[in-house]
Amino acid sequence: MNDHNHQSGQGHGSLHPHGIEEPPVSSVRGIPLVELVEVSSSYGTTPALQNVSLKIWPGQFIAIVGPNGGGKTTLLRTILGMIPATQGKVLLRGQELNRSSMERIGYVPQLETIDWNFPITAEEVISMGFFNKNRWFGGIGHEERRKLQNIMARLNLTGLGSRHIRELSGGQQQAVFLGRALLGDPELILLDEPTAGLDIRSRDDVIHFLHEINHHGVAIVITAHDLNWVAAHLPWAVCLNRRLIAQGRPQEIFNAAVLKDTYSGEMIVFHHDGMVMIGERPHAAHN
Amino acid sequence: MGNGPTPLITNPTSFLPRGAGEDVRRGLDGLNDLNCLNDLNIMSLLVPFEYEFFRNGFFAAVVVGALCGFIGVYVVLRRMSYIGHGLSHAIFGGAVLSYVMNLNFFLGAGIWALLAAFLIHLISHRRWVGADAAIGVVTTSSFALGVVIVSTHRSFTRNIEAALFGNILGITQNDLWVVILISLAVFLALLTIRRQLLFATFDPEVASAYGVSTGKIDLLFVTLLAVTVLASTQILGVTLVAAAMVIPPVIARYLTQRFQTLLIVSPILGASCGAAGMFLSFYLDISSAATIVLTSAVLFILLELVVLARRKNPISKGLNYY
Fold first, then answer.
1. A-side interface with B, Cβ within 8 Å?
2. pLDDT tens sequence across A106-152
3. What is the ipTM of this complex?
4. CATH architecture observed for domain A2-286
5. Are the CB atoms for B246 and B84 separated by under 8 Å?
6. How is chain A split into domains, by residue range?
7. pTM for the structure as a whole
């Protein structure tokens, strides 16, 4: 087993060739939705990912955690084909990535990257999700409009379509971009830090939407910084710091050793009432 | 003013190109006899249309105003205002060269504009060179080339004025048709790529993840922009084209926060300012291109004043303050 890899508790799934346990989902015997095989990538001469092997199964809900610059966003972009792997390969349902296979993956970027002064309404943003269905000509037909309204209703956005995106709450803004991703009927949705900058209520809304979507069979991969939030809400986590440190149930892999490997710093991990909680170790005692 | 009728337009043909002045001169002689300022009524608004030079200029201003207003929405939202300014300066080099080589303006300057657009696209996609720097390198070099050629051919000082400040009264019927055809072609091309263009403008990273060829869309857009600037330069002049592409969408931005509405309001504003500017310049005997730009600028200032006044009144709503 690779010394740097940590595995989840015993008896929950099969053992990965690199010593990382795979998730205990029923579809584990089929073909993975996405498979990264010893993938490395870089920005110029700066390495971003090193020999990352990871399988994402249909219906799985995964959080990728790690430090800033640890390769979380790069991993999502590599899956999307936006950043080519310098080594290894990315397979989608066992096939190399191509344009048509990409149509089954939805992507929600960090909200920080959005120009909130852009003159665009919630409905106009969500409608961009039809791009794959109707590339060049024509407007939105009856069927598409009905689908748009259904998705807006699912995301509690009914009546908010004509609002400028800046006039929505943080949770609603996230829902708008999630709606755009959902319009393409994806099998997998990748979300880059969907809870960044959101208050507790909005984060609650977001996780509610995500669980609801996941419940309908859509696999979800998110990047996140809040380990406690991940431990409380998500069934599976991947610790990444350019290389894959560990993956498994948050309650099992969020331990001092794994987190030290991932963040290169000491953290306090304690268990309470079946929950795992992570705290920062203060640098100096305060009076 | 003196006791007698004041000539409306005193020296109108000073900046007209070869062969374009005779028609204008005839029309203006007739206009000076009308003393329109003393007898302004609805019918007098139609008087300018009796003259071909005004009709041509008016329709050219409306068409180019609408086109600039339409493409300007993308120019402003993509933060490319400087490129309109730069491309018009680049076209100056091509215009001068085509004059020296006795080539058709649209052909010579058009090829030059497309070359400049392609170079800007190429340089700006280098990771270490920003788009603004790329525009600066290409367009100022082209403009400088034009100035050098002008300095060695002192005979066409008059035409240089037309290139710099526009020559709307010298637009011929053929010029008008060329402008209309170019505008239609650009408009249709923009309509065809509007979805990709919107996606690539709003969220380029995700657009490429969704399969939009953002590089190709960027190149196509900058090409369409070069063609628009080419059609507009003859009318508005090198120095004023950028304003026609920037001010109408900025005004429209105050009035709507829907992208689709912006695409309707901005060209209407551009066309209206073109029409109003033509009338005002006719009756006030001032430069047409500058008046068109100033009309839209005044509209912008008025809206800004309304916004400032409403900010003092927290209850009132209606205009966007973004």
1. 77, 80-82, 99, 102-103, 105, 107, 109, 113-115, 117-121, 124-125, 128, 131-132, 134-137, 162, 164, 166, 184
2. 999 988 888 898 999 999 999 888 876 555 555 677 888 899 999 99
3. 0.77
4. 3-Layer(aba) Sandwich (3.40)
5. yes
6. 2-286
7. 0.78
